[in-house]
């Protein structure tokens, strides 16, 4: 393997890892936001939702 091929493989792997990390972070953010919104709705309305 030449140096250029190695660099391309490393860059491709890094990009894939970054995409996976971004997806995981996005999912976590969505979950946290939904939990916060549900809690605020519960506090304002005073009702208990069964998840």
Provide a brief overview of the structure.
This protein is an all-alpha fold. The protein is built from one helix and no strands.
Averaging pLDDT over every residue, what do you get?
Answer: 88
Query: Over the alpha carbons, how many angstroms does the gyration radius reach?
Result: 21 Å
Order of helices and strands: H
Helix segment tally: 1
The biggest sheet, with number of strands, parallel, antiparallel or mixed sense and barrel status, is: none
The geometry reads as: rod-shaped
What is the total tally of β strands?
Answer: 0
Helical residue percent? Answer: over 70%
Distance between the termini: 54 Å
Point out poorly predicted stretches: none
Strand content: under 5%
Class from helix and strand fractions: mainly alpha
Give the secondary structure arrangement, pairings included.
Layout: H1 3-45
Describe the structure.
The protein has 51 residues and is mainly α. It has a domain of 31 residues. The protein has one helix and no strands.
């Amino acid at each position: 393997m030449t140096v250029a091929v190695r660099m391309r493989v490393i860059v491709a792997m890094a990009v894939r890892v970054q995409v996976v990390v971004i997806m995981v972070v996005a999912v976590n953010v969505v979950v946290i936001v939904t939990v916060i919104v549900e809690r605020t709705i519960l506090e304002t309305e005073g009702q208990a939702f069964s998840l």
